[in-house]
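Sanity check

After download, print the first record. It should look like this:
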Amino acid sequence: MGQGGANMVAALVGGMGGCAMIGQSVINVTSGGRKRLSTFIAGAFLLFLLTMLGPIVGQIPMPALVAVMIMVSIGTFSWNSIPNLRRHPPTSSAVML
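Expected structure tokens:
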């Protein structure tokens, strides 16, 4: 409920809602992470990047981060859902598109 509320507030003030942890979790599992330690390591590394290397990370050009985000989207997309669009209800297919 907190995530949904935050996304709605972000939309009201011109922001873009989302949840970075979904992509991180999918990448973690597809990379072989199965235990809680893998999630902890990913979060701890992100915290380290933001707190200790924040100024250096801030130098990364935005187009490079966008390219990484697009590659994560391509890697986590369920490509076999495209042929199934005709079998799903039209409302569900419209939301996916």
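If your output differs, re-run the checksum step. Summary of this record's structure: The chain has a mean pLDDT of 84.
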